[in-house]
Design a protein that fits this description.
2 copies of one chain form a homodimer. The first copy, chain A, is mainly alpha-helical. Helices cover 70% and strands 0% of the residues of chain A. Chain A is elongated. The structure holds a DNA duplex.
Chain lengths: 208, 208
DNA sequence: GTGCTGACTAAGCGCTTGCTCAGCATGCTG
DNA sequence: CAGCATGCTGAGCAAGCGCTTAGTCAGCAC
């Protein structure tokens, strides 16, 4: 089973098609390294070597090690928000749409777990301005889920005592997948998505 | 709202009563620093300064920076396992006991979120031998939850299609609390525990 | 008092870090 | 062909890292 997380990520980067291939290789190496060892334990030599270059080459394509992280984080969050928005905006009632959101959100965090780890667990290493951008995107994702739960409650499809906590639980379940999921985990990302979709609907008291 | 997470942790350390107070201050400072900045971004000077000592003093009480992390992780995991075991072993049927486990597990991860962050998100920085110990404890925790779900299914109190995935979801929800919970979060740790207990019982299809 | 111990510090060692820069090969342009 | 921009490297700098060392000092036994 091969996973190609950054291939999905790359097109969302500004000027993706005009960038030299080396910049992509560096990004890929950075994602892998940051995910495995964490931002601070990763050296610029690690990244450059993994991309088949000398450390100096990194600074031709990116301003700094932190800029690389910022780019990964921005693109990863943007991709996730798009995924959630599209799944939530499709046809069907709130329950059906929520199922789709959880399936996609969960599967993405399993499939793109390397990107997911960087996106979710290296926030503290971001420069301040990049953090602000990314925090806004995270809030948007949570709001999208909250809105969907509220719609479900209004339509009488969900029964929830506290929307905020429920929304936290839903996103939390998906995010944490990127922490524990490995290639050796039983079930494909899509299977896990379906199971989690089922669990979440029950959690929300869906009458379906 | 003040939280004293390490105070709970300290007694579980070997030779806790004979250890000098300085060792406790260093541990406390290390937990705070590791939780806030991560293991690799924390310097021995950070820890020592926060404990009101010079960097060299650290090495009188602990063999290395990594040894400090190992002690925190070991003690934190041991405390969590004890908490789960006691909650699961109490009186009542599987559903009642599961509610108690989730309430306690969740509340602990909210209350002791600094310790929780180190315990759950700094595993990769552990020396190999400490990692092996800690991994065994994590497996025990997961097994405890799985066994409780199986008991519930056998007793006809739960309805679950896949025990492993359900157990993952239950522990996952609790663990992730230490990532997002802050002092500013709405609701006390105990309130959150109660809400999560409710959500999990529904997720497991509890007929109560 | 004397001798000893254990907690601690100031200074700093050896090494690694993020990052820079002069220079080189390549290929495009006039 | 020259001239020049582009992508990259080898060498290396300043800063900061984990950890060690030599030595200080309060407290206790005798």
């Amino acid at each position: 089973m091969t996973s190609t997380p950054i291939a999905d990520l790359w097109p969302t980067l500004p000027g993706a098609d005009t960038r030299p291939e080396a910049a992509y290789r560096l990004l890929q190496a950075a994602v892998e390294s940051f995910a495995e060892r964490g931002f601070h334990a990763t050296t610029t030599r690690d990244i450059a070597t993994a991309a088949g270059m000398s450390p100096a080459a990194l600074y031709i394509h990116y301003q700094s090690k932190a800029a690389l992280l910022a780019e990964i984080s921005r693109a990863g969050h943007a991709a996730t928000l798009t995924l959630v928005r599209e799944a939530a905006a499709g046809e069907g009632g709130p329950a059906e749409r929520m199922r789709r959101v959880v399936e996609q959100f969960t599967a993405w965090h399993a499939r793109a777990r390397t990107v997911g780890r960087v996106v979710n667990y290296e926030l503290h290493a971001l420069p301040e301005d990049a953090y602000a951008e990314v925090a806004a995107l995270r809030l948007d994702i949570e709001r999208e889920v909250s809105a969907l739960i509220e719609a479900g409650v209004a339509a009488g499809e969900f029964e929830v005592s506290e929307v905020r906590t429920a929304a936290r639980a839903v996103t939390s379940l998906g995010i944490d997948v990127s922490r524990w999921y490995t290639e050796r985990s039983s079930g494909t990302p899509e299977e896990l998505g379906r199971r989690y979709g089922e669990l979440v609907l029950r959690m929300l008291g869906a009458r379906v």
